[in-house]
């Protein structure tokens, strides 16, 4: 007899008896210059907070956060999350929690520091406050942490019991981050539509339909407002795009849950993290490039004309706001064929989100898509046939 449950990857297999959703933080507070007024809201969650962040973010946040916490007579300690959200840094953070006898974690950062703080809080059954210092990801919102190796390679993600207890979005803080972080956040948020519509576009479940439709609205909003937002940091349109990248992208992940998460764009990102040369680019930059790769796969393997149109539209948009369109833009022009193959193999390994695509993909096909994200689209059929007659992708140099 076949055990059906074994044939479904665990990440996409909800329990047949019940489905648990972690849709949103218990409370979201947003505004400009609000951090110094957040002492009381934080004190409701704990008296001995451990603040977890990177060296830059801790020094940016400290002048505002410290007086607010001191006013409430909280016993505060702080810990740097190190280089990455890795097993070693998680271990050090757990020791810091125990040494300080912390009863609350406060994560401060753009992505990895928040992931590390959320995961340590989850493991210790402690409440968690997230304070994003850039709009680079929706990590301040979600009940999910990504774990990386010491070398920065993506290893696995962990679903958490709940979204944060309190999310504090201080626009003044976000404005201290480099422009590039918001561009990257836009890339990561855009992926919601291209991935959710593929993994869940045919679902009839109410909440999944809601998540997919919101992802489409999010994409349109980013198309309409991103250029103006990047031209005027601090303005209302800039805040709208920050909200879209940090909050709305989080809502979609929460509503869609495990059934409506990532597909090839993130799988390509995960594969690229295994190349040392990719570590200077941000998460959302690699994901944005991954969207183009995903569309390219749909064009080449399925002959999907809509994917061609979508890719041309994205290339134009990427050009406008400065998202990478190719391996060269990611600084990977000199990557060897062996390295490219390694990252394609990681993206194609069993259990990878790449397999949420409705067709099979081999590492060779993926490499061909990775080197042709900017290909013109005059005649898909001729490109497809030349692709099929080529056993190896074109050399990169
Ligand atoms: Zn992402």
What's this entry about, in short?
With 397 residues, the chain is of the alpha/beta class.
Question: Helix segment count?
Answer: 14
Q: According to CATH, what is the topology of the largest domain?
A: Dehydroquinate synthase-like, alpha domain
Q: Give the neighbour order of strands across the main sheet.
A: 1-8-5-4-2-3
Beta-strand residue fraction: 5-15%
**What's the quaternary structure here?**
single chain
Secondary-structure-derived class: alpha/beta
**Which CATH-level-2 architecture of the largest domain?**
Up-down Bundle
Number of domains: 2
Largest sheet: 6 strands, parallel
Say which CATH homologous superfamily of the largest domain is assigned: Dehydroquinate synthase-like - alpha domain
CATH class bucket of the largest domain: Mainly Alpha
What letter string, H or E per element, gives the SSE order?
EHEHEHEHEEEEHHHHHHHHHH
Task: Work out the helicity level.
Answer: 40-55%
**Please, what is the average pLDDT?**
90
Count of strand segments: 8
Using the CA coordinates, give the radius of gyration. 21 Å
């Amino acid at each position: 007899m076949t055990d059906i449950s074994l044939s479904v990857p665990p990440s996409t297999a909800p329990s047949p008896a019940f489905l648990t959703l972690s849709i949103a933080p218990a409370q979201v507070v947003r505004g400009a210059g609000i951090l110094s007024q957040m002492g009381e809201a934080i004190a409701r969650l704990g008296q001995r907070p451990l603040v977890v962040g990177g060296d830059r973010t801790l020094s940016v946040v400290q002048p505002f956060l410290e007086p607010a916490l001191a006013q409430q007579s909280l016993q505060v300690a702080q810990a740097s999350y190190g280089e990455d959200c890795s097993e070693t840094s998680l271990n050090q953070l757990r020791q810091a929690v125990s040494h300080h006898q912390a009863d609350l974690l406060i994560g401060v950062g753009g992505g990895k520091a928040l992931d590390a703080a959320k995961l340590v809080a989850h493991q210790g059954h402690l409440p968690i406050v997230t304070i994003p210092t850039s709009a680079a990801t929706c990590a301040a919102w979600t009940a999910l942490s990504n774990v990386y190796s010491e070398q920065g390679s993506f290893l696995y993600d962990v679903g958490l019991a709940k979204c944060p207890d309190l999310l504090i979005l201080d626009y003044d803080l976000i404005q201290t981050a480099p422009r590039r972080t918001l561009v990257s956040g836009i890339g990561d948020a855009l992926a919601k539509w291209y991935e959710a519509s593929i993994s869940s576009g045919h679902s009839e479940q109410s909440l999944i339909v809601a998540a997919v439709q919101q992802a489409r609205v999010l994409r349109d909003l980013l198309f309409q407002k991103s250029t103006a937002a990047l031209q005027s940091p601090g303005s209302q349109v800039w805040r709208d795009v920050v909200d879209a990248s940090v909050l709305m992208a989080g809502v979609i992940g929460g509503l869609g849950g495990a059934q409506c998460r990532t597909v090839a764009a993130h799988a390509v990102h995960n594969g690229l993290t295994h190349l040392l040369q990719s570590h200077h680019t941000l998460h959302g930059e690699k994901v944005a490039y991954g969207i183009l790769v995903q569309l390219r796969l749909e064009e080449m393997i399925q002959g999907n004309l809509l994917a061609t149109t979508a890719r041309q539209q994205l290339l134009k948009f990427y050009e406008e706001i400065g998202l990478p369109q190719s391996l060269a833009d990611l600084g990977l022009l000199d990557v060897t064929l062996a390295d490219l193959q390694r990252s394609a193999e990681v993206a194609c390994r069993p259990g990878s989100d790449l397999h949420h695509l409705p067709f099979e993909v081999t590492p060779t096909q993926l490499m061909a898509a990775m080197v042709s994200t900017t290909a013109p689209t005059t005649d898909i059929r001729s490109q497809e046939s030349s692709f099929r007659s080529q056993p190896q992708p074109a050399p990169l140099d």
